[in-house]
Sequence to fold (478 residues):
Amino acid sequence: MGSTSDVGRRDLIKRSAALGLITVPAMSALSACASGGDDDSKKVDKGKKSAKNPLAVNESAALDVVIFDGGFGQQYAKDAEAEYAAAFPKTKGKVKHAATQKIQTVLQPRFNGGTPPDLVDNSGAEQMDMGTLVAKNQLTDLTPLLDAPSLDDPNKTVRETLRPGVVEMGQFDGKPVWILYYAYTVYGVWYSKSNLAKLDAEYPETWDDMLKVCEKAKKKGIAGWTYPGKFPYYLPFSLYPFIAKIGGREVLDSIDNLEPNAWKHPAVKAAFEAYYELYKKGYILKGTPGLTHIESQTAWNQGKALFIPNGSWVENEAKKTTPDDFQMAVAAPSSLDKSDKMPFGTLWASGGEPFIVPKSAKNPEGGMELLRIMLGEKSTKNFVKQVSSLSSLNGGTDGLTLPPGLASAQEALTKAGKNVVNPRLQDWYVTLQKQQIGVGALGEMMAGRMTPAETIKKCQKFADDTAKDDAVKKYKHV
Fold:
């Protein structure tokens, strides 16, 4: 431990004047979407239900799929679509595949016009607001898929093959399941074992040790941290479990629930002050506020910074610039001090890559069947091998040799045990999480343009405004 006492750590950083603010949009553009309706006249006729076709898919109908072309790419989906066409030969040549990084820009007109795709991977910076989609009744309930026999074992339903918590993540207002999270993401602090070894250091399990490692790196001309400054909503990937570790998971629950003064909890203050200390001590890579996710990951791969907050998709997304001897790894947030409510190893892990079947889709059964195929062992293992990510299928890595980052994520998940948190702000209130808290508050703080106290005040105001907005449907932990 360093010379700073545990008690002093929490009050080390003093308030300083903010240098500027940023204007953010008040609500997602998708909120302008027409309210959902189900025009059965546009839907294809259902097929004949059988053991091989439990969802009664029309075996000759076209299928329209749109995939987010991000860290996971799109080949895994194309491969699953080929399996779909093999299962239903009359659909050969009728499976339309499109990929984009601008999900909302591309799909909002189709949702408005009542002609959405049959299956959408709703992810990325332009992700459509999940809460808005649910509130406006624009999604198909995926319960029939979850209750259908799994592809590999007809004695198990799809629901019974999924990792714990995946089904619940897709629920917003009761029993219906509106979203199927296909990937299983481990969030945290990512680093290179080989780069730490060059400094004769290991991953720091305490915040004092984190600062020591960053100081050691600084003397060698290496930054301690970088992050996607243009998309600072990556910061919560390590910051939120840090808050939970300090104050308990109930702190994150109160934030998700939009409770008054939730952001003013001492654990939030302590976590913000600790991260702000990275900025104050010059441990953030110069120019980070102007970097995209790709640029920050590339700088990290080049050894310009030791640590980066990210999710387990990063191994695939950054593979073109990752050195062969990098030994990519992920760890849970460091402990702040001995009064932390949760043990070291506490991390955020949850379903990722949300798939939806629009309410007005022409072939919703086909969209759900493609998801059933994707959750089969063949497609799942193909996904794991291609993109270095866990999937929502429990045991989807059995028999596979995992690359370093994914093996580390699996180890971190095992170490966490029951100490896994799953903040819901990012899927309940996308605009609040990404544009307001991410860009408008945390991004400003880490760039040195706002103090922790000012950031907390801003976060609370954003949350309060959302809570008071009758146009935004509210969700709560039960």
User: Anything to note?
Assistant: The chain is about 40% helix and 10% strand. Confidence is low (pLDDT under 50) at residues 1-37. The radius of gyration is 22 Å.
